[in-house]
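User: Hey, quick favor. My workstation is busy. Could you predict this chain's structure for me?
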Amino acid sequence: MLDLRRIDYGSLNARQKENFNFQKLSAVLADFGYVTMRLTDDWGGADFIAQHIDGDTFLRVQLKGRLTFDAKYKHKGLYIAFPYSDDWYLFPHDELLATVLSETDTMTGTRSWDDNGLYHFGHLSVQLLELLAPFRLTGDTVGVV
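Assistant: No problem, here it is.
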């Protein structure tokens, strides 16, 4: 008899969490007509490629555990995917970065962004959730911390 038990996400190591999140997001993207192809090595910053059933749409996606902006992703045509609450978000990095920089004062003036070109959000404000609304995918994030 097969003994299936749900895993404790918190007990996974970083690589296992990334694999887990890739599988969860792939299932959500399937509902939107995408198949995913995991890359063995980051390709231009992408962790995986999402191909739409239309045969013309390909997304290069970087998978994150939280909302993240990174200067090294600029001008690469990357999408960033991350879980938050019971949803997934998938957004074009450069487009949302420009919006966040122009419409909020969250990142500008911080050492993290100004000195290192990296900023991530553990908690999303109402303003950020409104900016992210067009990029929200509903889906199962059970186990994602």
